[in-house]
Design goal:
Structural class: alpha/beta
CATH topology of the largest domain: Beta-lactamase
Shape: globular
Oligomer: single chain
Distance between the termini: 53 Å
CATH class of the largest domain: Alpha Beta
Radius of gyration: 29 Å
Order of helices and strands: HEEHEEHEEEEEEEEEHEEEHHHHHEEEEH
CATH architecture of the largest domain: 3-Layer(aba) Sandwich
Largest sheet: 7 strands, mixed
CATH superfamily of the largest domain: DD-peptidase/beta-lactamase superfamily
Helix content: 25-40%
Strand content: 25-35%
Number of strands: 20
Number of domains: 3
């Protein structure tokens, strides 16, 4: 074949192959576009049919490709409810050391002669929300090992690490004394709540049986709850007078009924802490001759310390949506960074500094508390996706710490009974108000895709708990549409 024939043959082959190549490229591009277009079509349809009467915002982004998948009202402001905890946690991970410990310290101011401590005993709290009765027993056991039998001085609680604002900004007075709005103090114990169980007595007409945990002489109890026949309906109600620790129990419990359990907040939990400490000292054989009160640690030797690592706190903040953990973490930010008393306003400034670093316009959001209990908080879906994306792009260790603190769908925390169909591919933070629900986190998809998402739904009718479930089910529909294609 001569040179001219070869050129002609190559030209023909080029003309045959070129359209096929163009077609293949176009088809590939169409496939990419059609996936996101299909997601958009389905989510738009869902919003128009089931969310048309509420305020909804959605942001979905592929972290692997750094491309948006879907957004709807992504920059509008919503009440995030407990999704606020995601911001608080991220700021703490950014600014506090990864080996940071919350602590409760025991100081002795005086000298020990034989079995007598001549001086005061100080307990200083540094915002540890995980401190339990067992930790208090560990402090007391230290004194027992020192063979102290008498404290010839006072028991003093030091709460100077935080300011004296007991609640977050905008918390609602009629939520008291619910356990989810505990009083905030750096000297905490048992989540600053009291547990009361009510059981039927062995005879109809007799008062119901009560158990208090922890047992103490600090709180007061008035009980009018009675045992009734098995034909009657259980109706036990427990409340607490505002600004005092008098718990009132009323109602009836059938003789065949199982034990009922209740948890309520304690007023002035730091005072409860030192009173309980004194009572448990007595039970351990150590007598106090002085008084118990709140003051600052004037001087003394640090002799014992109980600590809990920040990651243990983060797990409770996000997996279990623990409000006390979130608020103590929140105030700890300003206490540590500004080296002053931890305050709501100071910590809000620090969180805004963090959000500014990650590209959020902080003039367009409101930070009122650390937990999301406050209805004053305002943030956008993009705020939450940016928080997660920032760590993903800049620091794999911090990203892992944040993601590991989230609830795993179908496994633990507030997502334990949700997303079981997605085989643990969802890690997220939930949020609930009476008329708001939220879900932000990641979906671990096919081909190594990590998809970040935030869904905020506000202003649905506050009729009953079924309404909240309805919109949480819609959150799951949204994520399942995403999971079908990614």
């Amino acid at each position: 074949m001569n040179r001219k024939s070869w050129k002609y043959l190559l030209w023909v082959l080029f003309l045959i192959i070129l359209p096929s190549t163009i077609y293949s490229s176009e088809q590939s591009q169409k496939k990419k576009i059609s996936t996101n277009s299909l997601i958009k079509r389905k989510l738009d349809s869902l919003i128009n049919s089931e969310l048309k009467d509420v305020f909804v915002g959605i942001k979905i982004e592929n972290l692997k490709t750094n491309k948006d998948i879907y957004q709807f009202n992504a920059n509008k402001l919503f009440r995030p409810a407990s999704n606020q905890k995601l911001i608080t946690s991220a700021a703490a991970i950014e600014f506090l050391p990864d080996n940071f410990n919350f602590k409760t310290q025991l100081y002795l101011n005086g000298n020990i002669q034989d079995t007598v401590l001549n001086g005061n005993l100080y307990i200083k709290g540094y915002g540890d929300p995980l401190f339990k009765s067992s930790d208090m027993d560990s402090l007391i056991n230290f004194l027992v090992q020192k063979q102290i039998k008498i404290i010839n001085g006072n028991i003093v609680g030091d709460i100077s690490y935080f300011d004296q604002q007991y609640w977050g900004k905008g918390w609602m007075w009629d939520d008291e004394p619910e356990a989810f709005v505990p009083y905030i103090t750096p000297l905490s114990i048992n989540s600053n709540i009291i547990n009361i169980t009510v059981s039927p007595s062995s005879n109809i007409g007799e008062k119901a049986l009560l158990k208090i945990f922890p047992e103490n002489n600090f709180i007061g109890i008035i009980s009018n709850a009675i045992t009734v026949s098995e034909k009657e309906t259980s109706d036990i109600h427990i409340t607490r007078n505002r600004f005092e620790n008098l718990f009132i129990i009323s109602g009836k419990i059938p003789i065949t009924e199982n034990t009922k359990e209740f948890s309520l907040s304690i007023y002035r939990p730091e005072e409860f802490f030192i009173k309980l400490f004194n009572e448990r000292l007595e039970k351990s054989g150590i007598r106090t001759l002085g008084q118990t009160y709140i003051d600052t640690t004037s001087s003394g030797d640090l002799v014992c310390e109980i600590t809990h690592n920040i990651d243990n706190v983060l797990n409770l903040v996000n997996k279990n949506s623990d409000n006390l953990c979130a608020e103590n973490l929140f105030k700890t930010l300003s206490a540590e960074i500004f080296r002053t008393k931890g305050t709501n306003s100071g910590s809000a400034l620090i969180i805004k500094r963090f959000l500014s670093i990650i590209g959020v316009d902080t003039n367009k959001i409101v930070i009122a508390d650390g937990s999301g209990v406050s209805r004053y908080n305002l943030a956008s879906p993009e705020t939450f996706t940016n928080v997660i994306k920032y760590f993903y792009q800049t620091d794999s260790v911090k990203f892992r710490r944040l993601i590991n603190s989230l609830s795993i769908g179908g496994v633990d925390g507030t997502l334990k009974n949700r997303f079981k169909n997605l085989e643990q591919k969802i890690k997220g933070k939930t949020g609930t108000h009476s008329d708001a629900t939220s879900l932000s986190g990641i979906y671990i998809g096919k081909s190594g895709n990590i998809v970040v998402f935030s869904i905020l739904i506000n202003n649905y009718p506050n009729k009953n708990s079924l309404n909240s479930k309805k919109y949480k089910d819609i959150e799951e529909k949204i994520v399942n549409i995403l999971a079908k294609y990614y």
